[in-house]
Amino acid sequence: MTNLTDLTLANARDALKAKKISAVELADAFIANGEKHNPKLNAYITLTSDLAREQAKASDAKLARGEAGALEGIPLAIKDLYCTKGVQTTAASKILKGFKPTYESTVTQKLWDAGAVMLGKTNLDEFAMGSSNTTSHFGNVINPWKRKGDTTDLVPGGSSGGSAAAIAARLALGATGTDTGGSIRQPAAFCGITGIKPTYGRCSRWGTVAFASSLDQAGTFAHTVKDNAIFLKEICGHDPKDSTSSLNAVPDFEAAVGKGVKGLRIGIPKEYRMEGIPAEIDALWEQGIAFLKDAGAEIVEVSLPHTHYALPTYYVIAPAEASSNLARYDGVRFGLRANGSNLQELYYNSRAEGFGNEVKRRIMIGSYVLSAGYFDAYYKKAQKVRALIARDFTQAFEKVDAILTPTAPSAAFGIGENNDDPIAMYLNDVFTVPTSLAGLPGLALPVGLSKDGLPLGLQVIGRAFDEETVFSVSGAIERAANFNAKPEGF
Description:
Elements: H1 9-17, H2 23-41, E1 44-47, H3 49-65, E2 75-79, H4 106-113, E3 117-122, H5 161-168, E4 174-179, H6 185-191, E5 194-197, E6 217-222, H7 225-235, H8 253-257, E7 265-269, H9 279-294, E8 298-302, H10 310-325, H11 343-354, H12 357-369, H13 375-396, E9 402-406, H14 422-426, H15 433-438, E10 442-449, E11 455-462, H16 467-481
Parallel strand pairs: 2-3, 2-4, 7-8, 7-9
Antiparallel strand pairs: 1-3, 4-6, 5-6, 5-10, 9-11, 10-11
């Protein structure tokens, strides 16, 4: 059999069920890769090798009894934003270092119920705030890809960069992420893998450390579209503990992957053809359009006229919600506690010491736009624009079945290249933020390489709760692109 760490999730699942490999063998292969490569990549904050072996042994026993779950024995990485009972959960922040939850998030509980094995907790931008995975208290995550002839360390994208890097470097078969404004899709593009943010409400947010509650959504990373379809199905579904969790039935996403696109209408938003976008991004988009035409889809130009306002809208709403959510970190109930002569000083010192600069920046922005003098001018107006952005998509989907766009405006950039310019960093989410504001599903997949040999991706956007069409369209692009490049040395 091929190297175990080169298997896809689907192939590993089938091999385990056929007893061609054991769950312990599979787990050990990924544990060895993690021990070898994580010191360089810093993709994991916490490795849980002993726990993984215990879970793998239990999976082998269930496989032997014919009681396998849908993900039985599949080794996964968990973004360190999901609470895992008895295992350190930090949100990549100093303020939560050493925190071990006494409960399990709904998403991770669903994975353990399906038989999955946890390899560890992956690194991220602190509290999921960032587009480069350079704001973590535990250090930068390094993208396993390198530019041709250049040894510069590149960012893996953010905030779920640890999860994306772990998949690209063969340190896990799949990984959970969260996506608030592009935090699954942009890292997937930068690392040459596939990732999906489902419709807002598809997956429970209970037990996931909150950033912006009306935007945060759980999702998945894996090597292929099919892998994501298998993986995502297991974390979806209604949760009575989450009031935003949808009652919609969860379809068989895997069955949708091979359906094809013949007869489908694919929208191309004219507003996404932005000035200054690199020629190779535009060429990649045209290639994706050609793939879908050749597969029998009809290409239709659509308009999303309020796209121009999506980023400023997002960077009012998300920090406002963050400032509210992060108020719970006060040094009193859990997490880091600094010294203080009175309660106010305790709060001040705990937060000053516990939060990093990007988190502080967003808390200040959020507190400002929610303040009495500016609530109507900023926050209330941003909510009105958000409704217009959502309406644009609703009207576009009256004409088309899915929308195709680039995922990010560039390939992965070097660590530190945009650090001094927060605006340039925020622009990394220009193609992903509108989808998040509208609460729609979006899948990013690799389609080609840049002139520097780095992966470039496209994004497929669907109607609310129509992940099946997203998977069908993405599957057609994946088959045509036949992207099989991987980073050297992994």
